[in-house]
Amino acid sequence: MRIENDIKLGFKDVMFRPKRSTLKSRSQVNLERSFKLLHSEKEWTGVPIMAANMDTVGTFEMAVALFQKKIFTAIHKHYTTKEWNAFMASAPKGIEDFIAVSTGTGAKDLERIDEVFKQHPQLNYICIDVANGYSEHFVAFVKQARSNYPDKVIMAGNVVTGEMVEELLLAGADIIKVGIGPGSVCTTRVKTGVGYPQLSAIIECADAAHGIGGHIISDGGCSNPGDVSKAFGAGADFVMLGGMFAGHDESGGELIEKDGEKVKQFYGMSSATAMDKHVGGVAEYRASEGKTVDVPYKGKVENTVLDILGGIRSTCTYVGASKLKELSKRTTFIRVNEQENRVYTK
Questions:
Q1: So what's the pLDDT on residue 191?
Q2: What pTM was estimated for this model as a whole?
């Protein structure tokens, strides 16, 4: 046993230090980024925010809505090939560069995504998603996926340490998903005691990835636009959102009324709700590592997107970054004990 004494930080532990700026308006800030991916050598340009591959977030309807703002959606893995076929027959042109086909690492998962890619070879992105990206099985699956799809962009995760980021990139992944336990409906940290404060995970994993030409996605922990900005400031190339995109018209889940309020159900993909729905319940050898909550109904996702993008633009003006690409270079974080005055917060 050993203890690391270095301080590890989450989003709530820091704020940006403002700096002099030549920007006259938030409208001058360019939020688009362009990336050349490590193995596939494809290039991607857009606003590097992603909807999470959860069935109450990463839906086809969400993908269409976010595509209007050049925002990416990792489509959840529980759509059938027939449902993919129906969606691609009516999908807007160009959306194939803003959606990923998600998969687990089970015996039939490669077969399923192979069917989807055979039907729709124009799709370019694979999201290989497991809760624990540290297993040898997971690394082997990434290698197999790279062998099978040499020209596709592979996202893989989740991990929180630099050495595993490097291993997965060398195994064939282009982009690594970073985050264990920070999500709003994730209970991994309390069920297992395992995790890593998200801001420090981003800083360390971005450094490892960028050193060998890879990229990272900060996955989880954002509860407001300021957190999204902090993830970018810490070095994340993409920021994946779950809870912030839940509860909208385009989110999965039924709209119901409780105590006179409209709500939509939102749950973690390792929750009992998700496992009851998709795999027949929680296996006896494991525990549920997610919770199920009712999210207040928020209407169309466009309003939330505008709020997030406006917040990031404002962050950039405070530190003098005219482009999102410059934000991490212009970032100085200060450690704090409080974030806001909560006198009038319910």
A1: 84
A2: 0.94
